[in-house]
Amino acid sequence: MIHFDNIGMRYGMGSEVLKDIAFNLKPGSLHFLTGPSGAGKTSLLKLMYLAQRPSRGKITMFNEDVTAAKREDLPKLRRRIGVVFQDFRLLDHLTAVENVALPLRISGGKGAEIEEHVEELLTWVGLKGRMKSRPPTLSGGEKQRVAIARAVIKRPDILLADEPTGNVDPAIAKRIMHLFVELNKLGTTTVIATHDMSLVEEIGADRLHLQEGRLHMIRAGENTPKLKEEKFDSLAFDSGKLDQKEFGPKVISGDDMS
Amino acid sequence: MTKAIHFLPDEKNHEATRLLPYVMAVMVYLSALALMGSMMLHKGFGDWTESLSNRLTVQVTTADQETRETEVRKVMQLLRNTPGIEHVRKLNEVEIEQLLEPWLGAGNVTSDLPVPDILDVTVSRAVDINLDALNAQISKISGNIHLDDHQQWLGRFLRLMDMVEYTALGILLLVVMATICMVIFGTKAGMAENRETIAIMHHLGAQDSMVARAYQNRFMIYGLKGGVIGLLLAFVTLISLIYLSRDLASGLVKVPELPTVEVGILLVVPIIAAAISMLTARITVMRDLRRMV
Ligand SMILES: Nc1ncnc2c1ncn2[C@@H]1O[C@H](COP(=O)(O)OP(=O)(O)OP(=O)(O)O)[C@@H](O)[C@H]1O
Ligand SMILES: [Mg+2]
Question: Both B283 and B205 in a single domain?
């Protein structure tokens, strides 16, 4: 579903913030994306949601070489990807309902059904009373939930969430994770960037771990390797080994989640 | 064309373009006046010069009443026998009085005032009359008879009118250009103000045309609003002008009237303004977006 082939990326003339990234995420898989602040998590997600082009290498998504995609082809691809931005990026002058409805409107949905669907989802994330509120009047956690609702409303083929539980209390964080897991079970390939190791452990999915721009694959249950002292060559993927290093979809039981 | 998605902030919060309808109104006002002026001159004076172009005027200025009457009879005879001349008519005293009144004031034209006899001659358009030959024959009757075919005067007048018309069209062109520049500025300012909103729309999968549609609709409304205001003001101006010039009207100079067809053309001006505004906004947005990632 998402295939990175020897990707390097830099901002402008700066040094590479992502180096030799190679991996393949199978359709329907769920992965966490971890790593210290500034390691390049957001940058990696930007490549996946087509906000940034790599400075080298090839990215294949939906069986299409997106690094070679023409500008006109991007909207079609982007509509299949739901994104929870780290800084939410809601439209301040629209209400919560209008914000969440945008992806549906953009792909041509009409009036009443949209409204109903959106209100249902907002109720589910605990924003029943804030439907008509505009983002500037919402708390950080409330904004985050609006952003999440907007990302999942269309049940996208790929869901990319950047720190989706950074601003909410543990109970809501659990609820949101549960939502992602359910969505993933329905077939959405999911990548969640997070610092919250307790959630990672609870769900127990494979991890893409970034360290100083390099990617390390960590199987569910394994600990984060000690850095600096240890070598990660065995974990880092190069394009030649990709076929054996594919990660299958991780089936997660939602029993323990309320 | 599908319905535009509502994603831009409300118009009243739009600092960059809030004043645009008013500037648009001024532009439409100016172009409507230029257009109206040009059309009225064209039509009004066109009719008038038309009516003069197949006319000749003959003045008989001989002082002695009897001699003059004989000369008038002779020259009328001559004119009626000239091929190409359709009609000869001597103006009566009332008509001459009317012609003089604007200069002398009503009631001041008395019978003892020496006024020439004037013959109004209608010429067939089909035949070219040899005016030189006619002139020669007339001067044989008397040296006090003058034939005026208005051509020299008309020529100068028409050149002036052409100049006025070109000037009006030039103004129109400049106003249209200024309007386009203004809409480009307005669109760019509006886009700069909503840069993040547009970026988010792109991330959610909106095409450039969706973004452009929001702007082109908005600018079409600006054009239409401004256009209607401007045109109303132009009509008020025009009606006042016509009203004022009625008082000055005399038999000599006809006040040009605003013909219905031309009024109809003017009603299209706001629509043209809206169309120019809309197209300019669309082209500007599409071009600028292509430069964004
Ligand atoms: N727009 C940008 N221009 C230049 N450098 C950037 C830009 N965005 C990020 N960087 C740099 O790229 C590196 C990776 O940043 P990134 O935002 O991907 O980190 P992150 O892993 O998401 O961090 P965090 O956990 O704090 O969100 C950082 O060194 C950062 O300074
Ligand atoms: Mg980040």
Answer: yes
Give alpha helix (H) positions in chain A: 41-48, 74-78, 96-106, 111-124, 140-152, 170-185, 197-203
Q: Whole-angstrom Cα distance, residue B134 to residue B27?
A: 54
Q: Which ligand is closest to the CA of A48, given by its number?
A: 1
Q: What is the mean pLDDT of residues A13-28?
A: 94
Q: Is the pLDDT assigned to residue A150 strictly greater than 90?
A: yes
A2-80+156-257: CATH superfamily: P-loop containing nucleotide triphosphate hydrolases (3.40.50.300)
Same domain flag for B37 and B91: no
Cross-strand partners of B175: none
What residues have a C-beta under 5 A from ligand 2, the ion?
A 41-42, 86
Domain boundary among B112, B143, B174: B143
CB B175 within 8 A of CB B34: yes
Residues of chain B with pLDDT under 70: 1-3, 13, 44, 51, 106-112, 126, 247-259, 293
Give the CB-side neighbour count of residue B6, counting CA atoms within 13 A.
13
B204 and B176, same structural domain? Answer: yes
Residue where a domain terminates, one of B143, B174, B209: B143
Is there a single domain that holds both residue B45 and residue B72?
no
What's the total number of domains in chain B? 2
**Is A51 in contact with B293 (Cβ distance < 8 A)?**
yes
The protein residue whose alpha carbon is closest to atom 29 in ligand 1 is A38
pLDDT at A50 exceeding the cut of 70: yes
B57 in any annotated domain:
no
Please check whether residues B166 and B270 belong to one and the same domain: yes
Give residue-wise pLDDT tens across range B221-244.
Answer: 999 999 999 999 999 998 888 778
Report the separation in Å between the CA atom of A173 and the middle of ligand 1, taken as the mean of its atom positions: 24
Please report whether residue B154 resides in a domain: no
* Residue whose CB lies within 8 A of the most ligand 1 atoms, among A34, A41, A212, for a mutation test: A41
Chain A residues touching B203 at Cβ < 8 A: 49, 51, 78, 83, 85, 89
Structural domain harbouring B101: 62-143
- B46 or A39: which carries more pLDDT confidence? A39
pLDDT at A44 over 70: yes
What average pLDDT does chain A have? 86
Tell me: do B94 and B26 sit in the same domain.
Answer: no
What is the per-residue pLDDT across A178-233, written as a single tens digit (0 to 9) for each?
Answer: 999 999 999 999 999 999 888 898 888 899 999 989 999 998 877 766 554 444 44
What pLDDT, on a 0 to 100 scale, did the predictor assign at position A249? 41
Tokens found for residue B289: 């977006």
Q: Which residue among A11, A48, A207 is best mutated to probe the pocket of ligand 1, counting the most ligand atoms within 8 A of its Cβ?
A: A11
Measured in Å, residue B169 CA sits from the centre of ligand 2 at: 59
Partners of A75 on chain B (C-beta within 8 Å) are 202, 205-207
Q: Would you kindly state where each structural domain of chain A is located, as residue ranges?
A: 2-80+156-257, 92-146
Distance of CA A161 to the CA centre of its chain: 3
Report the distance separating Cα A206 and Cα B35, nearest Å: 74
* Per-residue model confidence (pLDDT) at position A240: 40
pLDDT computed for residue A235 by the predictor? 45
Which ligand is closest to the CA of A33, given by its number? Answer: 1
CB contact under 8 A, A102 and B204: yes
3-class secondary-structure state, position A142 = helix
The CA distance from A145 to A164, in Å, is 8
